[in-house]
Design a protein that fits this description.
four-stranded mixed β-sheet; 16 helices; five-stranded antiparallel β-sheet; alpha+beta; 437 residues; single chain
Length: 437
């Protein structure tokens, strides 16, 4: 893969790159509408593919927050056209890495020494590059070490990057300017946390110790003494990411075991710790040769406050969904329905969320659930397709729900997709045995 010798770090430099990308996208639209004038049957597939490629090419050279937002969008396979999902999902674990000279320069800037001054061996060619940092192999005192190095300028450009992508997000999600700032502030705060590698180490140690009793789950050991606010050193974990297994399948026994482990891991965090690994994409989980699940990245941890946790999971109960009075009350507690909503908006959004929650909460309202069932995921995709084309929804205020929905819903969308990829059946209450009585 081609390497990168330079990343623009100034606001002007990064904005210039996005302007160039915007010009390419504009050209794609002109070509599309030109063809459409000649042939009315022309679909948007080619336009989506060209736009997805040009946008991704622009973002991958910038790295950082803009690319991270693209990665986040790719986790929900029902929001965007498939061309965007397929291209943006590359941001999870396959982007062009820094060149060897830039790696050494960046490491010395962060740590005050070159990597070979600290480790016995250090491979300056990256083995894994994502949106915020890339990973290198090293050895120290006979141990295999993974060294994650943050890209230069990422932490300093979060605010300006989000300001650049904000207009696209506003249009894509029908967000109105009024009251929208709380959502963007939530994203900015979490991205800022993700660039603080010392915080990530503390979170990683805390979460791995708290979840150590869940069978079939493994974590690396972290080395704070060989880390900094922009570098993380941890054990090198042998295994494969989940993606190579997708479509090949496991035996039913292994699929059920892996799926149960991942489900218990997330339900224990949510209900036992009230904080959760909020970045469940294939690049953050591995499977070893004994089919243990390995969690390797705790940069994005979402605290779940009591005032959100209680109504959120009360609303997930079938009896709450089917009780109009309770359902309306919980929608208002979660800021889905607002005091200034018109009667039309109340009816519309009550119906929309009733339909969505009746489907999406099915795993919570069953003793067992089979995540290999394609019908469940087809119905989710069909529902997403239905409302993406709903003109009435486009006319209404899309600012719906507490700011906490952003990362909690992102967590469950990503989790469901991973569970489907693993393809097993779970005992939904199994995690309760790990909770403190």
């Amino acid at each position: 893969m081609k390497t990168i010798d330079y990343i623009p770090v100034s606001k002007l430099g990064r904005a210039g790159k996005l302007v160039t990308t915007g010009v390419k996208v504009g050209g794609n639209y002109l070509k599309y509408y030109g063809k459409k004038m000649v042939d009315s049957t022309v679909s948007k597939d080619e336009l989506n593919e060209n736009n997805a490629e040009d946008i991704y090419d622009g973002l991958k050279s910038l790295k950082g927050s803009a690319l991270k937002v693209a990665q986040m969008l790719s986790m929900d396979k029902n929001i965007m056209p498939r061309a965007y999902v397929e291209k943006f999902s590359l941001a999870q674990f396959s982007v062009p890495p820094l060149s060897v000279p830039l790696v050494r320069k960046t490491f010395k800037n962060y740590f005050g020494k070159y990597p070979e001054d600290i480790f016995d061996t250090f491979d300056a060619e990256s083995v894994h590059a994502a949106s915020i940092g890339q990973v290198h192999r090293a050895t120290l005192d006979g141990k295999k070490i993974a060294v994650k190095i943050q890209y230069p300028g990422v932490a300093q450009s979060i605010s300006s990057d989000l300001a650049l992508v904000k207009p696209f997000a506003v249009k894509m999600f029908n967000i109105q300017a009024k009251d929208s700032e709380k959502y963007f502030k939530e994203v900015e705060d979490k991205l800022t946390e993700e660039t603080d590698y010392l915080l990530e180490i503390r979170q990683s140690i805390e979460m791995s110790e708290a979840c150590a009793m869940i069978p079939g789950l493994k974590f690396p050991t972290y080395y704070p003494e060989f880390s900094s606010n922009r570098i993380i050193s941890m054990d090198w974990m042998e295994g494969n990411h989940i993606s190579p297994y997708v479509g090949k399948g496991f035996s039913k026994e292994i699929a059920d075991r892996l799926t149960q482990t991942l489900w218990d891991f997330y339900m224990f965090q949510m209900h036992g710790l009230r904080k959760v690994h909020a970045d469940p994409h294939p690049g953050n989980f591995m499977i070893d040769c004994d089919y243990n699940l390995i969690a390797i990245d705790f940069g994005c941890i979402k605290e779940v406050p009591e005032e959100f946790y209680v109504p959120y999971f009360e609303l997930a109960k079938k009896e709450s969904i089917d009780n109009p009075v309770i359902f309306d009350l919980k929608l208002r507690e979660l800021e889905i329905l607002k005091p200034d909503d018109t009667p039309e908006e109340v009816v519309y959004f009550s119906k929309l969320f009733h339909e969505m929650l009746s489907l999406f909460t099915q795993p919570f309202n069953a003793e067992t659930f089979d995540f290999s069932d394609p019908d469940f995921f087809v119905k989710i995709a069909q529902l997403g397709e239905k409302y993406s084309k709903d003109n009435q929804l486009k006319k209404m205020n899309g600012n719906r729900g507490s700011k906490h929905f952003l990362y909690i819903n992102r967590t469950f969308f990503g989790l469901y997709n991973l569970l489907h990829d693993l393809g097993g059946q779970v005992q939904t209450r199994n995690f309760e045995k790990y909770l403190k009585k």
